[in-house]
Amino acid sequence: xxxxxxxxxxxxxxxxxxxxxxxxxxxxxxxxxxxxxxxxxxxxxxxxxxxxxxxxxxxxxxxxxxxxxxxxxxxxxxxxxxxxxxxxxxxxxxxxxxxxxxxxxxxxxxxxxxxxxxxxxxxxxxxxxxxxxxxxxxxxxxxxxxxxxxxxxxxxxxxxxxxxxxxxxxxxxxxxxxxxxxxxxxxxxxxxxxxxxxxxxxxxxxxxxxxxxxxxxxxxxxxxxxxxxxxxxxxxx
Length: 237
Prior knowledge:
Layout: E1 16-19, E2 26-27, H1 29-44, H2 53-56, H3 61-68, H4 71-76, H5 79-92, H6 94-97, E3 99-100, H7 104-113, E4 117-121, H8 126-136, E5 144-146, H9 159-168, E6 175-179, H10 182-190, E7 194-198, E8 213-215, H11 221-235
Parallel strand pairs: 1-4, 1-6, 4-5, 6-7, 7-8
Antiparallel strand pairs: 2-3
Helix pairs in contact: 5-8
């Protein structure tokens, strides 16, 4: 897969941009992995090798634990309890465990100034979502915010994106989604939406194949989806 592919997306008939949270506006993959490494070593004497990080990136916690630990280790470690504890720690100490994606707030503000509706769609719990958005100072910049409590099916099911479009009163085909994972991209495409994939160093080959465009940073997105709005504004002056 060519992770450097970039194509402009015409503004014609497009009205909304929907953002995933983790891996798009914030980065927690490495921090989560290091948290697990430290906890397992201190509490169980289990060494989680650095090579296991590839098993974590962009995957559900349950799938990660299934592959990262042996059956014997899983019989000792309460992985569900550990995952819940990690979430509580991240929620209580965002400055310690969460990194901001450069340019996120500025991108959302620029889109809104150009008339785009904006939404947030995350599979995180609502409390975690609101804590992070307050920390980023962007909660007021979204027309709709959906979290785990708002859905019954997780990605790659399109439910969360279809619901976001419904809340915004726009057609799914009028939405662009910003995603970074295979399931996230699949969810957006299954909803009938355009999708921009953000590639990370840990992105696996094929993860973003279904994305309409792939970038490596939020800063690359504005020229792709805002340039047509600028031309339209200049034409109407």
